[in-house]
Amino acid sequence: MKTILKLRELTKKFGSLTAVDALTFNIQKGNVYGILGPNGSGKSTTLGMVLNVVNPSSGSFEWFDGEMNTHEALKKVGAIIESPNFYPSMSAEDNLKLVCKIKGVEYSRIDVVLEIVNLHDRKKDHFSSYSLGMKQRLAIASALLNDPEILILDEPTNGLDPQGIHQIREIIKRIAAEGMTILLASHLLDEVEKVCSHVVVIRNGKKLYSGPVDELNATHGFFELKSEHKDELKSFLETHSAIERYDEADNDLIKAILAQPYEAKLINKECFEKGILLTHLVKRKETLEEQFLKLTKNQ
Ligand SMILES: Nc1ncnc2c1ncn2[C@@H]1O[C@H](COP(=O)(O)OP(=O)(O)OP(=O)(O)O)[C@@H](O)[C@H]1O
User: For residues 237 and 259, what is the distance between their CA atoms, to the nearest angstrom?
Assistant: First the structure.
């Protein structure tokens, strides 16, 4: 699989603050990556560095396996890292004509990209008459004009209403389904979960996890158990090969984390055979949100 972008120990310091701390990950062609982290975790600074608008303090990045210099490589990148900026009293179409001139792109691309972002019917309308969501969609259209190899978006749904958010996410999914590589920064877990195939979780500029979104949640789950024979239950769990460890909650609930797949009915039978009668038994898996919160809290 072709590597679009490699980051190696990429670091940015602003005085004594390390905004991005030795970040290393790869972007492979055809995947949709989310850089996920709370506000101030270094997402925009990271995008700024790979787009040559922020100078790294140390480390390196390489576009397209180093086949060309960064200046040339960035001609194959479509990026929106600021709020959309177009001439308000010009139509969407005329604004895009200007971008075509700057990028050296044929006007024939305008209808193609406006169709992708569902703005074709409104192309003659002034930019000033557009809603925030339409402005953001026009920005995506503009970034797609030169048919880039990768689309980079910083918080693409910030400030939009639920309908606007939905429209942007659908457009991103549609573009991705056609094979476009996408890198987006977001502080919204559900956005990354809905749109991305891969995620890089960062906090205080440091990488906490990178890999497929599915694997972030790839645990075997846990049992919640309660019994009047609590001490016997605890000793039983301590020696059980399928149980990695257990935690005790205030309300006598015991959470037994699984080290391997295991069925609730089996543990119920084993407890019963040992004379441990369970008054509560539930098998659960942590949601992605719980995993994410745990990951970011532990640091
Ligand atoms: N030009 C700058 N000078 C000094 N500090 C900066 C500068 N730019 C960013 N920072 C700091 O670097 C840290 C990371 O900021 P960054 O904007 O990259 O985070 P972010 O994850 O994109 O957050 P947000 O979603 O809020 O933009 C923050 O503490 C921020 O205050």
Answer: 12
